[in-house]
Automatic annotation (TrEMBL):
Domain (Ig-like): residue spans on this chain: 29-146
One GO cellular component term: plasma membrane
Organism name: Cyprinus carpio carpio
Record-level GO BP terms: cell-cell adhesion
Keywords recorded for this protein, A-Z: Disulfide bond, Glycoprotein, Immunoglobulin domain, Membrane, Signal, Transmembrane, Transmembrane helix
Principal subcellular localization: membrane
Protein name listed in UniProt: Ig-like domain-containing protein
Transmembrane feature ranges: 170-192
Record flagged with keyword Ubl conjugation: no
Sequence similarity: Belongs to the myelin P0 protein family.
PANTHER family listed in its UniProt record: MYELIN P0 RELATED (PTHR13869), MYELIN PROTEIN ZERO-LIKE PROTEIN 2 (PTHR13869:SF21)
């Protein structure tokens, strides 16, 4: 087996040109076994996901999934499959399928709940879940195939649906809102101050005339 692996490396995974194959005019039993379907070297596709994701009940959440492939990316051949397995005991369910165009589920818990958010040319196979309920707690799997790269790992996203946002997210949200309000107040104060300063430097003509008439009467 080790000798076969070594031969596989030397032959660069059976990717020689036809001319190079013709030069190998004396095949050995080992090379014959190497070129048989069961021993053919195939590059695997690599899938990457966010891992653990938390979402608040009733909100939208993006399940990120990207991939790398040694084969050329052709939008017509790339196939993306999303599946779901709920927490505890439960069977695997189809969530979404994409090949050239999205195929959303027409029934089940994911009907009208999942949308395509990826870009095949950008090696992105992400989807968005709309208004997630607690029943979406579980494991989502993302599988991508790009022939001849059809073997590889399956990306996994563990989704946790909670009642409220975690403290860190709430803190960030409060700080962002407070900062926005403070910025608006500062802008309003600056505008008011500039207007007052402008009025002091350039008094209205009517006020000047009235003041002059008042001085004449006193005289």
């Amino acid at each position: 087996q080790l000798s076969i692996i070594a031969l596989c490396n030397e032959l660069t995974c059976a990717r020689h040109s036809p001319a190079e194959h013709r030069r190998q005019s004396f095949p050995t039993p080992e090379t014959e076994r190497l070129h048989s379907p069961s021993w053919r070297c195939v590059s695997g596709i690599r899938v990457f996901t966010a891992g653990d994701v938390t979402a608040v009940n009733g909100t939208d959440v993006r399940l990120k999934c990207t991939f790398q492939s040694s084969a050329a990316i052709r939008a017509s051949s790339v196939a993306v499959s999303w599946t779901f397995r709920p927490l505890g005991s439960g069977h695997e369910e189809t969530v979404f399928y994409y090949q050239e165009r999205p195929f959303a589920p027409s029934e089940g818990r994911f009907k009208k709940k999942v949308e395509w958010a990826g870009d095949i040319s950008g090696r992105d196979a992400s989807v968005v879940l709309r208004r997630v309920p607690f029943s979406f707690n579980g494991t989502f799997s993302c599988q991508v195939k790009n022939p001849p790269d059809v073997h590889g790992n399956v990306g996994v996203v563990r989704l946790q649906v909670v009642r409220t946002a975690p403290l860190s997210e709430m803190l960030i949200l409060c700080v962002a809102i407070g900062g926005a309000v403070l910025l608006i107040l500062l802008l309003v104060m600056m505008v008011v101050s500039l207007r007052r300063c402008h009025r002091r430097r350039n008094p209205e003509p009517n006020h000047t005339v009235l003041r002059h008439e008042h001085n004449l009467i006193n005289c």
